[in-house]
Amino acid sequence: MRKYFGTDGIRRIANSELTPELVYRVAKAGAYVLSKHTDHTPTIFIGRDTRISGTLIEAAMTAGFLSYGANVKSLGVIPTPGVAYLTKRYKADASVVISASHNTFEFNGIKYFSNKGMKIPDSLEEEIEEVMDSGKLEELTATNEKIGVAENREDLLEEYVYFFRKNFEEEIEKVNREDFVVAIDTANGATSVVADQVFTKLGIKHYIINNQPNGININDKCGSTHLEGLQKFVVDNKCSLGIAYDGDGDRCLAVNEKGEVVDGDCIMAVISNYLKEKGKLNKNTLVATVMSNLGLRKYAEKNELNFEATKVGDRYVLENMLNNGYNLGGEQSGHIILLDYNPTGDGILTSLMLVKILLEKNLSVSKVCSIINIYPQVLVNAKVSSEKKYDFDKDPEIKKEIEKLEEEFSGNGRILIRPSGTEPLVRVMIEGEDQGYIKAKAEALAKLIEQKLK
To answer: Domains of the chain by range and CATH?
Structure first.
């Protein structure tokens, strides 16, 4: 069990749990682990989102890297995928994103990326933790001329904008229409510095909302976790499409012209269908997690696509894609990985793919999404003892109830039970055709789990 890193880096309340002292140690240990096989002075990029604590965490991170002897290039406020892209583009030895993604402003976090622009694997995070707690940190101190140097490189944001122009400008120019209008919600987060520039340079007519970050309004009733405002805006302003990013810009969810939500599963269906038509879907395979909707599996089956399911977490999706040569994968939450472009989820990239498909096909969002039937899904949390949360599948009564439900659904429903990685909870997820029925069944099963594992 890892002590500091969770499923997506380290994420805690800034300056009380995620203290400057802890950050300094994470930086020193990380610089050592990620660059110990290099024969040159390592260079590490740092990017952050718009949280008030971002500069505090960055200062501590920078101090840790410089103290180890690494050089730092500070990218300022920039989406997570922008950091990943620039790390690979400029051959940095590693990079760090300071962000707590979709969480509220009081949280912050640290995500490490390798020199290939990919989130580092669990094994490297474990190694960093070992170094942090081994007493080795004092030895990893540079002196005299070996102390690192920091440099501000916020200008590199322009390279990230150019990445989108290079990949989409010509294609979108051919099919763009005056009556096609997009509403963009940047969640007062990292995409607020770049989304407007990208859509303006590509000539896509757009409105932009929640684009005035003040350090504490990131994800506050806006962005991909709070779509209500965008849904209303799309309908009120007769937009063709609504796009919502999360705080660090690696997720994208959408809203159709009727104001209805289009989740990551639906976006993956649309993109996979398009790539298959173009002969560009590697091995006719789509990779998603076990949390993806049953409707996505049924869509894949109907359209003769292979469907690969991984553990929850975009890093596991990417791992599967890299190991098997696939180029499309993602999560229901809107992390979509288009490996032909960037090795991490990229909200702006995903939204531009969607825009390109809609313009090329000259169809509405609701029409292109009609290829998939999303099943109603209910998620209920069972509060259990921390020590017992992994024992749900050992209790005969719980097992019997799960088997009984699976038999009832016989292919037209699905049950997924998984313990939370961070809280004393067992998550009960049920999908089926009847919302009321599956809600009742999920609540009853969660209650049984609570009774048995309290």
So the answer is: 10-152 (3.40.120.10), 159-371 (3.40.120.10), 377-452 (3.30.310.50)
